[in-house]
Amino acid sequence: MNHExxxxxxxxxxxxxxxxxxxxxxxxxxxxxxxxxxxxxxxEMNPKGIIFTGGPNSxxxxxxPRMSKEIFELGVPILGICYGAQxxxxxxxxxxxxxxxxxxxxxxxxxxxxxxNSPLLKGLKEKSVVWMSHNDYIExxxxxxxxxxxxxxxxxxxxxxxxxKFYGTQFHPEVNHTEQGFEMxxxxxxxxxxxxxDWTMEEYAQTAINDIRAKVGxxxxxxxxxxxxxxxxxxxxLAKAIGNQLTCIFVDHGLMRKNEGDEVEAAFADSGVNFVxxxxxxxFLGKLKGVTEPERKRKIIGEEFIRVFEEEAKxxxxxxxxxxGTIYPDVIESGxxxxxxxxxxxxxxxxxxxxxxxxxxxxxRLLFKDEVRALGTTLGLDEKLVWxxxxxxxxxAIRIIGEVTPEKVATLQDADAIFRxxxxxxxxxxxxxxxxxxxxxxxxxxxxxxxxxxDYTLALRGVSTSDFMTADFSRxxxxxxxxxxxxxxxxxxxxxxxxYDITSKPPATIEWE
Length: 513
Ligand code: XMP
Known about the structure:
Blueprint: E1 5-10, H1 16-25, E2 29-34, H2 39-45, E3 49-52, E4 78-81, H3 83-91, E5 95-98, H4 99-102, E6 106-114, E7 127-134, E8 136-140, E9 146-150, E10 158-161, E11 166-169, H5 181-192, H6 201-216, E12 221-224, H7 229-242, E13 246-252, H8 260-268, E14 274-279, H9 281-288, H10 294-316, E15 321-323, H11 328-333, H12 351-354, E16 359-361, H13 369-378, H14 383-386, H15 406-425, E17 434-448, E18 451-464, E19 472-473, H16 478-491, E20 495-500
Helix pairs in contact: 6-7, 6-13, 7-13, 15-16
The protein binds xanthosine-5'-monophosphate.
């Protein structure tokens, strides 16, 4: 690819992905690389700029992350953030102090004053709030540097060496709490590094299509389509690139939301690829008969999924490429930093072992989720699929507490559809990050008309979250909840009570199970 490139050098901070996302939001392509990346490799990548991330350590510790000082001799502009700024200062001969000795530690919102003559701070307000989070602080500057920002406690809140194009901020410009942070990053990228901003999804799509064509030639590719955003966008991209050389297998396990299987089929059946829908609902429900334990359900569905996929793949014979919807956060999590992250959720573990193929294609491996969505829109993917909420691989089986039966699946599909429809009617469908219905295993007495009922309780869940690791329950207005509840009890059989889940994660999880 011939894009302008900015490198984010990962020193183990918690906001590394966020920095990369912010750079991409400025329409500049960037990659996150470990601080252990050899200088030669960095030179070859020819970056327009380098950003050092924060990190948990003190630069003076023996095992703190360090790079070779040759990084300062590449002639490439550098912005150091927090630990990254301290590393820049330390590496160039300045000194770092320990805050607990003279109380210069700062955490949280802090007011800073700026010298707006600096290229980093041009056009900004002279005073604004920044997000600080540091124990150590910059004590003396290396030669050629000066302060361009300070707070009450921190004389070197932001620093520069104009000539070398080196900048540092003791605070975090990448987080939203830093009022002018986005603009500061923009100034670094455009004013200091001289970027033009050539990273757009139209461009990406065209380049990716060309690359895929060049790689696949007249070979055959296979994709497991789940109807989720990632596999749907990958399918659309491959369809444009290689058309009927691609076969998509969509295993419909009968545990999708109402009409979802048909929507997936409608979106792809005529897209020029070989589209195979396997209606395996009865098969999956048969396997789940009598099973109540959630982990067991997951295992059964996972295994059956692979079996069905494998059977279909065998019919196609040998394929050259297996397409996977891996996205950039998975790539970063599995290996730029020091800490190993273990993913707790996966939909179809182990697929590659079961299919005869030569190589893997991962056409989204450089994209963040919001970019995958933007690419989907660029490629003309149905909005419903572009904005699809996260949905567990085992589907409604885990949102039905206790045994899964065809009747219960239908009940839950109907109730969930009403909930989703009313949330959309209230205009809340983009602001609540995930919302769904759960069929509990509890029955209780109710009264309908003149009669007694003894039916199930349905639970509604709605959460706001940015990362799905923590979440807050959504404050859905009572009148919306009321409408949903009235409609569900009236329109869906076997439900006589509706409750709303008001726990956050932690201590609860988002899904029930
Ligand atoms: P929990 O319930 O652990 O869920 O708070 C966090 C997020 O993960 C989704 N989830 C899954 N996603 N495959 C997935 O791709 C799965 O098996 C799976 N199980 C849970 C869940 O919907 C929530 O967004």
